[in-house]
Specification:
Chain lengths: 298, 275
C-alpha cells in the first residue's frame, strides 16, 4: 500500500466534547494510484468531507496522516486542486479572471498572454469559450461549476479533489457536466478523488469506489473495483453486463450494510462484476442478520 | 422602474413650487398705506418686525454670489466658492488621514480575533465621544486652529470606517478564504486579492457614512475655530444679520453634502458585486 501515489494511513477525526469524544471516522487506510479516478460514497455524517479536506490540507486529522508522492501533506498546496460543492468562484471576477487567478498563482512567472491563453484553453474544454467576460452571477449553476472545474484542471494539480461537485445541479445539467468531466479527465490523466451521493455517477466516473460505513466511528469499509471498459458513456454504460451487478452491490451496501461495524484494518477489495446474483442475495441475507444483531447490541 | 422617474420628478417639482410659493407669499412685507417718512425709508419699510427673506430675494442673492464665487475682498468678505473650498479641504484631509489608519487597522481587527478583543474596549469608549469635545484638547496640544479642525474631522470619520472594515473583513465567506489557501496565497496576497475586493462594498459603505458625518461636523467645527470655511461663513453672516446669505449657505451646505455622498456612492457601485 505504501508505494501508492497517495497513501492515507490511520486517519481519524475526533471532536472532543464534555460528554465523551465524538469519533467521526477512524482507521481510514487506503491508497490512490497515479491517474486513478476514485469516488467515495457514504451516508451523511460519515466524514467524507473531512477526509477530502484533510487531503486538501484545509483540515487536520486527529491521528494518522496522508503521504502524497513521498511527502506528507501539511497545509494546502497548489499540488492539490479542489472543486467545492458551492463552486466558490470569486464573484467580482469574470469567468476568465477566475480561471487565470488560479493559473497566475500556479505559475507566477508566466507572461500575461500565456496565462490568458492557458486559461482560455481550459474554459473552451468545458464549453465556456463564449462566456469569458461574464461574472459568476450571470451564469447558471451548471456553468459556474464548469468554471470551477476549469480553474482546478488549469492549475494541473497532482491530485484533484472534487467535493460533491454536482450535488446542487439538476439531473440534466449534471449529466452534461459529467460527460465534460470524463472528457477533460481523459485528456489530462489527472488523479482524482471525488465525493458523491450518486451511485450511477460514481459507476460512470470511477475506477474504484470506496464505501464508508455510517458515522460516528465510521470506517472506509470496502473498495469496489469498477470493471467496466472505458471510454464509458452515460447511454451505453447501462447495457454493460457488469453495470447492474455493481449498482445492486453498491445500493445494497448503502441501504442494508452501511450500519455494520467492520473492524478490519484495510477496506475489503470487491469486484462485483464477478459476483453472481445468488452470491449477492446470500451475502445480503447474512449481513441482514448481523445488522439486526448489531442494532440489538447497540 | 424607469417609468417612475418622470412622474417622480414631476411631483418633486410641484412640491418645490408649492413650498417656495408659500414661503414667498407668507413673507411679504405689508404695503405702505401712506407715504413713508424719511426714517421709515432708511429702515427699509413700515414693517418694524424682522422677516425671513422670501425665496425670490434669496435666489437673487444666490445668483450674485454664484456668478462670482471666488472673489476675495479681505478676511471678512470672501466668495462662497472660497469658503466651501476651505471646508472641503479640511474634510478631505481629515477623512483621508482617517481612511489611511482606519482601513489597515480594520483589516487587522477583522483578521485577528485577538486584536478584535484587545482593541474593542478602546473603540467602544472613544466612538461615542462627540467630535467637538476633542476641540479644546486639540487646540491645546496642536496649537493650530486649522490643524485642530482637521483633527476633529479625522476623529469623527475614523469610527464608521474602522468598524465597517473590521466587519466586512471578518465576514468574508470562508469558501473564498479556502480558495486563497488552496492557491497558496500568502497573507498579504490573500488580503489584497481576496479579502479586499470581498469586503470592499462594506468598507465603502463605512466611508460613505464617514464623509457624511465629517460634512456635518465641519460646519460646527468652523463655527468654533473661525477664520474661513462654510461654517464660519454661516455664523459670520448671522452676526451681520444677513439672512439672505445664511439661507443661501444652508442650501449650499446641503448641495455639497449631497455631491460628496453621490461621489462615494459612485465608487461604491464600482466595487459592488452580485453573488
Amino acid at each position: 500500500m505504501n508505494n501508492q501515489f497517495v497513501s492515507i494511513e490511520g486517519l481519524s477525526k475526533v471532536y472532543p466534547s464534555d460528554n465523551g469524544d465524538t469519533v467521526v471516522f477512524e482507521d481510514a487506510n487506503f491508497g490512490i494510484d497515479k491517474g486513478e479516478f476514485v469516488c467515495i460514497i457514504g451516508h451523511s455524517g460519515c466524514g467524507k468531507s473531512t477526509i477530502l479536506n484533510v487531503l486538501a490540507g484545509l483540515d487536520e486529522p486527529s491521528t494518522g496522516g496522508v503521504i502524497m508522492d513521498g511527502k506528507e501533506i501539511v497545509g494546502p498546496s497548489l499540488e492539490r486542486g479542489v472543486v467545492f460543492q458551492n463552486y466558490s468562484l470569486l464573484p467580482w471576477l469574470s469567468t476568465l479572471q477566475n480561471v487565470s487567478f488560479g493559473v497566475t498563482a500556479r505559475w507566477p512567472d508566466w507572461s500575461k498572454e500565456n496565462v490568458i491563453a492557458h486559461s482560455q484553453r481550459y474554459l473552451k474544454m468545458v464549453g465556456l469559450g463564449d462566456s469569458l467576460d461574464k461574472k459568476p452571477s450571470e451564469l447558471s449553476g451548471g456553468m459556474r461549476q464548469r468554471v470551477s472545474i476549469a480553474r482546478a484542471f488549469a492549475t494541473s494539480p497532482k491530485l484533484l479533489l472534487l467535493d460533491e461537485p454536482f450535488g446542487a445541479l439538476d439531473a440534466l445539467t449534471r449529466g452534461v457536466i459529467q460527460d465534460e468531466l470524463i472528457k477533460i479527465w481523459s485528456e489530462t490523466q489527472q488523479t482524482v478523488f471525488m465525493i458523491t451521493h450518486d451511485v450511477d455517477e460514481a459507476i460512470l466516473l470511477a475506477d474504484r469506489i470506496l464505501l464508508m460505513s455510517n458515522g460516528p466511528n465510521a470506517r472506509v469499509a470496502e473498495s469496489v473495483t469498477i470493471n467496466i471498459d472505458r471510454p464509458r458513456q452515460r447511454d451505453t454504460i447501462v447495457k454493460d453486463p457488469a453495470y447492474y451487478k455493481i449498482r445492486n452491490y453498491l445500493v445494497n451496501f448503502l441501504v442494508n450494510r452501511s450500519g455494520e461495524r467492520d473492524l478490519s484494518e484495510h477496506p475489503r477489495i470487491v469486484d462485483p462484476s464477478h459476483l453472481s446474483a445468488q452470491d449477492q442475495d446470500k451475502s445480503t441475507e447474512q449481513k441482514n442478520k448481523t445488522a439486526t444483531l448489531q442494532v440489538v447490541n447497540h | 422602474m424607469q417609468s417612475l422617474n418622470v412622474p417622480a420628478a414631476l411631483v418633486s417639482f410641484c412640491l418645490l413650487l408649492v413650498l417656495l410659493g408659500l414661503w414667498e407669499a407668507l413673507n411679504q412685507p405689508p404695503k405702505a398705506t401712506k407715504a413713508l417718512t424719511e426714517f421709515e425709508i432708511l429702515m427699509g419699510g413700515v414693517d418694524q418686525e424682522a422677516r425671513v427673506p422670501p425665496p425670490s430675494q434669496v435666489a437673487e442673492h444666490a445668483w450674485n454670489e454664484l456668478s462670482n464665487p471666488f472673489y476675495d475682498a479681505g478676511p471678512n468678505d470672501k466668495g462662497i466658492g472660497i469658503q466651501l473650498g476651505y471646508s472641503l479641504y479640511r474634510v478631505l484631509a481629515g477623512f483621508l488621514a482617517a481612511a489611511l489608519i482606519a482601513i489597515p487597522l480594520g483589516f487587522v481587527i477583522g483578521m485577528s480575533p485577538l486584536m478584535h478583543k484587545a482593541l474593542n474596549p478602546f473603540i467602544q469608549i472613544l466612538r461615542p465621544i462627540s467630535p467637538l469635545a476633542w476641540m479644546p484638547l486639540a487646540l491645546f496640544v496642536i496649537k493650530d486652529s486649522e490643524l485642530s479642525a482637521i483633527f476633529v474631522i479625522f476623529i469623527c470619520s475614523i469610527w464608521p470606517m474602522l468598524i465597517n472594515t473590521a466587519f466586512g473583513v471578518s465576514n468574508v465567506r470562508s469558501d473564498w478564504i479556502s480558495v486563497a489557501r488552496t492557491h497558496e496565497l500568502g497573507q498579504i496576497k490573500t488580503a489584497l486579492l481576496v479579502i479586499l475586493p470581498a469586503a470592499a462594498p462594506t468598507i465603502l459603505t463605512g466611508m460613505r457614512i464617514s464623509i457624511g458625518i465629517a460634512w456635518l461636523v465641519i460646519v460646527a467645527a468652523e463655527m468654533l475655530v473661525g477664520g474661513t470655511g462654510i461654517g464660519y461663513y454661516v455664523w459670520n453672516e448671522w452676526n451681520n444679520l444677513d439672512l439672505n446669505s445664511v439661507i443661501f449657505s444652508i442650501v449650499m451646505i446641503g448641495a455639497v453634502g449631497m455631491l460628496l455622498d453621490a461621489a462615494l456612492g459612485g465608487v461604491e457601485k464600482l466595487v459592488q458585486y452580485k453573488e
